[in-house]
Specification:
The chain is an alpha+beta fold. It has 2 helices and 4 strands.
Length: about 80
Amino acid sequence: MEQRVALIGILVENKDSVEKINSLLHQWEQYIIGRMGIPHRQRGVSIISIAMDAPQDAISTLSGKLGSLPGVSSKVIYTKA
């Protein structure tokens, strides 16, 4: 399957999901180029961006698993090429 470069944006509103998020990211670590996390303490939310180079189905599977966690939202942006 074709490799794609993508960015997964994750919003975490439930801190109880953080351990599961890190576990999922560890499972896909071979595809992760980099990650950045920003805590927004005033709003009680964390913002995480994950840069990936992976097959499209791996990216969408990871995003779906992240988005199914309680208090977690995720969206993917893909490169055109």
